[in-house]
Amino acid sequence: MKGKPQEISNNLVPSYIRELQVYQAGKPIDELIREKNLSKVSKLASNENPWGPSPLAIKEMTKSLWDLHRYPDMHAYKLKTKLAEIYNLKRENIALGNGSEGIMAYIARAFLNEGSEVLTSENTFIGFYIIARSIGANLKLVPQTKEYKYDIEAMAKAISPETKLIYIANPNNPTGTYITKKEFDYLMDHVSDHTLVILDEAYFEFAKPCPDYPDSMDYRYDNVITLRTFSKAYGLGGIRVGYGFGHEDLIANLNKVKLPFEPNSAAQNGAWGALEDQPHLERTIRLTLDYREECEQYLKERGFNPISSVTNFLTFQTGSEEKSNRLYQLLLDEGVIIRPLKANEMPDYVRVSIGTEEEMTHFYQAMDKILPEYKKL
Ligand SMILES: Cc1ncc(COP(=O)(O)O)c(C=O)c1O
Fold this sequence. Notes:
Strand content: 5-15%
Bound molecules: pyridoxal-5'-phosphate
Helix content: 40-55%
Number of strands: 12
Oligomer: single chain
CATH topology of the largest domain: Aspartate Aminotransferase, domain 2
Number of helices: 15
Distance between the termini: 51 Å
Order of helices and strands: HHHEHHEHEHEHEHEHEEHHHEHEEEH
């Protein structure tokens, strides 16, 4: 091979790709078991559903394994029909992909070019920053309020005639906060028809009980695409299936750039089965909200000040990046994986996902054990 690898990539790879940081996922359980030779690990790092998928989802996925020699239904007729029934839409209003992040990538591919102006908030979902930057978009980030909420007034002011896309994670990850109906209305009053709005509602099932949470399905804006997922409340993060709703013209254009056979057949069937099991979903939401309240109380009693959350995770301040890393490392030694938030530009915060009763007890016991050591810092 001629030329040094560095020179080759400098010539071939656009600068906006070279500057990208690879997405960092929560530490896998097996990795920690290998590294520390532990018998028990609680992963509270990726906002998953710790109770797992519905048995109906598992049954449907298992059935579909016998047909794995066939390509999936590229129109996902069965899953789209079910979603259309539930949400009173047409199949043409529904997009599917490998997780909601997969659909986000297709939105970027279909609607953005290098230099397109994209507006969002600081301290929001990293996956979106990576996707927008990978297209070479000009990302405008508006600082959040001091309560770690999207600053909707400032965002409305930041909209320009060039703004092509606005991304709102509602509720937001990693802060767990949400924009209210009033704030959503205010923002939409300032958005023109030629700007597309992504409403990322990955944690919508947990926020829906809040009376002032704007469920995007109660609105009908032609320039809004709602994104939802089976990865969180439905417990299907491992199979990668997300869904989106929007005007049929928008969805038709998304489908032009989408890889034809996503989501795979097991994912399509598993998602269909998950939608059949409302009691499983309700139990997940009830337990999550109960355990979140308990965890919030626990953290407050230990002198931490968690950000008020409407999701399945809590984010709390440590005071410095060093302290966040120390807490993370000490908990890893005890077999508990949480998430430091340096990559989210919140180095003095960490995030803990709500787990099962057993996992939460493990977290509390580990915290009580390591806090004296942690406080020495
Ligand atoms: C706000 C937000 N949007 C989207 C996603 C991605 O979800 P999916 O698994 O559907 O790609 C996440 C995952 O953590 C998230 O926090």
